[in-house]
Amino acid sequence: MPIVTIQVTPAGVSAAQKAALIEGATELLVRVLDKDPALTFVLVEEIEPDNWGVAGQTVTSLQRPQAGAGGTR
Question: Is 37 a catalytic site residue?
Answer without folding.
Answer: no
